[in-house]
Design a protein that fits this description.
75% of the residues lie in helices and 0% in strands. It is mainly alpha-helical and 174 residues long. The protein is elongated and about 45 Å long. The N and C termini lie far apart (52 Å).
Length: 174
């Protein structure tokens, strides 16, 4: 693929890799990186959910937080088992924008209480799940090489959509 240009003609030093191909190459993630990303998302959601169980005042928000924890713990167990079956070690990247956003959000959440906490947690639930769903569908599934990993990602999507919908429903109540 790298040695081919448009219409299968060889590339020469004067003829760089076409932009769409270069962009796709730069974006590709390995199965280990995909599993690492999913594990990071799960860990972040669990951490945020546990904080919400202690700080949320609205019963619906606490219920949502418990659902988030349960579902992401299940996803983490399934991802760990899949990595073992594939003999792949998930590659975590703590320097990603997502990791930085999570750290900043945790600082923000820790500084809030009452309705302000509930509102911030729920709004983040909508935004964050929307971003993750988009990344799973637009990048992770196409980049996954293992058919089992593709299936795992596809089965995660309805759960993520459920979380997004639940957060949207709570947005109007808190």
């Amino acid at each position: 693929l790298l040695a081919l240009g448009i219409a299968g003609t060889p590339l020469s030093p004067a003829r760089p890799i076409p932009a769409p191909i270069a962009s796709a190459i730069a974006r590709d993630m390995t199965d280990a990186q995909i599993l690492g990303f999913v594990a990071q998302v799960d860990a972040a959601e669990i951490e945020e959910g546990k904080l919400a169980l202690t700080k949320a005042t609205d019963p619906g928000v606490r219920s949502f937080a418990q659902m988030i924890i349960n579902d992401h713990q299940k996803s983490m167990r399934e991802g760990t088992a899949l990595a073992k079956r594939l003999a792949v070690t998930p590659v975590m990247n703590p320097d990603t924008a997502m990791a930085k956003e999570h750290a900043e959000f945790m600082v923000k959440l820790n500084g809030l209480s009452g309705k302000d906490f509930d509102k911030a947690f729920v709004e983040h639930g909508v935004e964050d799940h929307s971003k993750v769903i988009e990344k799973v569908n637009d990048e992770l599934i196409p980049d996954a090489r293992s058919p089992d990993l593709k299936t795992h990602l596809k089965t995660m999507t309805p759960t993520l959509q459920k979380h997004e919908m639940q957060a949207k429903a709570l947005e109007n109540k808190v």
